[in-house]
Specification:
Blueprint: H1 2-37, E1 53-55, H2 62-69, H3 73-79, E2 93-95, H4 105-109, H5 144-147, E3 160-162, E4 173-176, E5 182-184, E6 189-195, E7 203-208, E8 213-223, E9 230-231, E10 236-240, E11 249-256, E12 259-261
Amino acid sequence: MQLLRQHQLFTVPTHMLKTIMLSIAVVSTVAITGCASKPQINNSARYAVAPNFYTVRSGDTLSSIAARYGLSYISIAEMNDIAPPYRIYVNQSLRLKDSGNRRSTTQAITQAAPIQRQSVSIPTAPVTTTPSVTSQAPTASVDTSRASKLRWVKPSNGAILQNFNLANNVKGTRYTGTQGDPIYAAADGQVVYAADGLKEYGNLVLIKHIDGYITAYAHNSKMNVKSGENVRAGQKIAEMGSSGTNRVMLEFQVRLDGKPINPSSVLPTN
């Protein structure tokens, strides 16, 4: 009798074991089927819908933006005229969709020739904070035929604090004035940068013009334009200040094909 009970106790777990094994087999089949179906999911669902334009935020790279929207960073670079090593800047406006009708500075403002394709080089040399009036140094010759396509105006009504002098690492003209004095666009163009990403230049505005010209306006107390805006010569784009330096001033630079040139070569004399 005792042996029979022991046999019955042994038999019951055996049936339960079969049931459990069957359940595990079913669950395993479902799990395997579920895993096998995953690759069939449309991967495009992982990507966010790309807007027409994207404003660069801190920590962004061209590759990370492209990956976020399932795009090619090379295509984004080509649409925005960004050359290797593909540097982008906080608050920069990037086109993500090519509508076939890209914004053109000159087409939107004048009937002049289209903007030449080039990368925008933000000034990198720090500004000296002890200004002194210097004599004007010789500069590289400027192709006046190229300069004549633009109507140039002075960016400030203030007195000149320092003239262009590469020997002293002064890559533009520095104007003095009072806090809040207006800063003007020196020529028709398109704002390609308006932020404070370079602390030594404070609030900095960069404007791209036709024929390879870029103008820079540094140390503003306030910026009245944003990246992507078209501006006209003489339009107020900022207010003079002391951001990035120890006195109120404007540092105005002109770059031709990425190289600094003497602003007096293109600005009117009166």
